[in-house]
Amino acid sequence: RLPNPTLAVTDGRITVKFHPWSIEAIVASEQAAH
């Protein structure tokens, strides 16, 4: 898996996570792990 340093910001209802990886890179990493 890719290292996943996330910065999560929440207003109590919605959580937004920021990370240095693109969605495509994350999906590829997840698929490769299975």
UniProtKB/TrEMBL annotation:
SUPFAM superfamilies registered for this protein in UniProt: Glyoxalase/Bleomycin resistance protein/Dihydroxybiphenyl dioxygenase (SSF54593)
One Pfam family in the UniProt entry: YecM
Gene3D superfamilies: 2,3-Dihydroxybiphenyl 1,2-Dioxygenase, domain 1
InterPro entries: DUF991_YecM-like, Glyas_Bleomycin-R_OHBP_Dase
Name of the molecule in the record: Metalloprotein
